[in-house]
Amino acid sequence: MALLRQVDQEFADETNIGVRRLILTQFRNHARFELENIGKISVLFGPNGAGKTNILEAISLLNSGRGIRSAEIGELSRMGEDGGAFAVSALLGDGIDERKIGLGLDINAPSPRKIARLNGKDVSAKALSDSLRIIWLTPQMDRIFASPQSERRKFLDRLVLSFYPEVQGAFSDYEKLIRERQKVLENANPDNIWLNAIEEQISSHAIAIANARVEAIGALQTEINNRIQSPFPKAQLLLDGFAENAILEGVDLKKLEIEIAKNFKDYRTRDQAVGRSLFGTHKTSFAARHLGNNMMAEKCSTGEQKALIIGLIIAQAKLVSQGLQSGVEGYFNRPNPVILLDEAFAHLDDERRQALSGELANLRAQSWLTGTDKELFSSLKNKANFYAISPNCAQITNHNLEQ
Fold first, then answer.
1. pLDDT computed for residue 166 by the predictor
2. CB of 178 within 8 A of CB of 282?
3. Is the dihedral of CA 368, 371, 377, 381 positive or negative?
4. Domain locations in the chain as residue ranges
5. Which of 71, 119, 191, 372 measures 20 to 30 Å from 344, CA to CA?
6. Could you tell me if 85 and 75 are in contact, meaning their C-beta atoms sit under 8 angstroms apart?
7. Smallest Cα–Cα separation from 27: which of 81, 85, 107, 103?
């Protein structure tokens, strides 16, 4: 077992938020990893391959979904003769209350399956979102607005679910019904009555998804517009989809639901020919414009794109920490945001590092950062706890003792 010791003792107020204790067992390259008395900001630094990102991935799994790598559950257990089924457990705090949360691989299931527990009781993975709201930024996301629309939508919908986790069911059911509809269309003589029923259900879920997207992006845009000028440029967020545009225009939702079902019916022949659904909320496009130079984000430099996405992540974290919800009561009084920033400081200049450090210190959120060099995080001195990570956590170094 490796019990990490914090290097720098001082950190900002609000210490009883986020993950207070973290234990990994047989996870990725970590046979056993334990971190206690975790503060508001934690910096994990060390060489490439030490397992820093693996720690962030484990935290990201304390939520619904597949985490920052979108990995299959069967890929997470430590390999080798001394490996075994993985487990991740944590003690959470929201300022007053504390909860014990855990997840792992169900070794008794016929196929790999994630199991989750809250305060010793089995819960659905979706229920974890009521205990933590995970927000992350990885190097692969730096150029998200230059990525294909499918990747942009995934990013968009993670934003949406951080505000409205109760819409997860609508997303899941929508995807299942789209696949079911396509299977029916593959028959030589599709059952039109069955298709009508499927398309009516799809339309209902499409309304829920589109409405959540419009509300979330509207709230984010307001937060961005109200932000004072900073090294992180403001973005104009752009949604373009049949349902989203209609909602923005104020179309009656019941009429819109009927119209969406009609469009699915009209697309049957084309969808049957191409083997996929050409209409729906899964075709909505998401983009951003740099408000400083009026350029579309995908046309901006790599540095500007990264600055834009960091500004968006900060706005997201601020809104989540304020408790933007749709009235569904969770386990905690307010959402409990945890921000995971993998190598976020690596390609920022000093001004932007200082600005990001200030933003993280002022947020009602817990932040985790990774990097190879501790000096990258000098702007977080006396604001964060620093942990030196060695390969496989076989050696944990108190960095202050080396100075």
1. 85
2. yes
3. positive
4. 1-132+336-403, 144-327
5. 71
6. no
7. 85
Residue whose structure tokens are 């920052």: 68
- Name the H helices within 42-167: 52-60, 149-163
246 and 213 in contact (C-beta within 8 Å)? no
- In angstroms, how far is the first alpha carbon of the chain from the final one? 26
Q: How many C-beta atoms surround the C-beta of residue 114 within 10 A?
A: 18
CA distance 54 to 27: 8
Residue reference for tokens 């991935």: 57
Q: In a 10 Å sphere around its CB, with 0-12 CB exposed, 13-18 middle and 19+ buried, how is residue 312 labelled?
A: buried
Four-point Cα dihedral 377, 34, 136, 151, nearest 10:
130
pTM of the model: 0.89
Distance CA 321, CA 75 (A): 32
Tokens representing 241 are 């989809």
CA 63 – CA 17 distance, rounded (Å): 16
Q: What is the predicted pLDDT for the residue at 131?
A: 78
Give the β-pairing of 30-35 and 3-4.
Answer: parallel
Q: Report the C-alpha gap between 374 and 46 in whole angstroms.
A: 8
Q: What is the pLDDT of residue 95?
A: 67
- pLDDT interval class at 329 (50, 70, 90): very low
Task: Please enumerate in sequence order all residues whose Cβ is within 8 A of that of 399, keeping only pairs 6 or more positions apart, or say none.
Answer: 7, 374, 386, 388
Task: For residue 211, give every residue at least 6 positions away whose Cβ sits within 8 Å of its Cβ, in sequence order, or none.
Answer: 247, 253
Overall fold of domain 1-132+336-403? Rossmann fold (3.40.50)
Q: Which two tokens stand for residue 336?
A: 């409990």
Could you say which architecture CATH assigns to the domain 144-327? Up-down Bundle (1.20)
Across 220-234, average pLDDT:
93
Q: Is the pLDDT of residue 15 over 80?
A: no
207 and 260 in contact (C-beta within 8 Å)? Answer: yes
> Which residue's structure tokens are 């069955």?
194
CA 256/CA 242 separation, integer angstroms: 10
**Both structure tokens of 96:** 């007053």
CA distance 340 to 18: 11
